Model the fold of this input.
Amino acid sequence: MYHCKRSGAVDIVSGNSPLIQEHRTEFLKSIDSCIGNGQPRVILDLSGVALMDSVGLDALMDARDRCQSLGGSFVLAHPNPLCRDILRINGIDREINVYDDVVRALGSFAR
Done:
């Protein structure tokens, strides 16, 4: 399950479900709930996400595109080693900024 919480002007989406086909719709609904007001700044906290597949990677790109289309930003935080490798191997880490933790991700919006 994925949910969205607010920290100042930034929304943090977190979940404990793998980012795979079965959870794509749920994930994107949580992103949509964050981007309803103004310029979205969204962090996806991956600390509870054990695995992602190609559908999950596509969902990440969809989330990024949704945020950018509204003039906002979408970043990733705290992937486990497996997810970090999946992001790197598929080149997603060149498309979406990845931070070691949520604090660093939050700091990226202050620049």
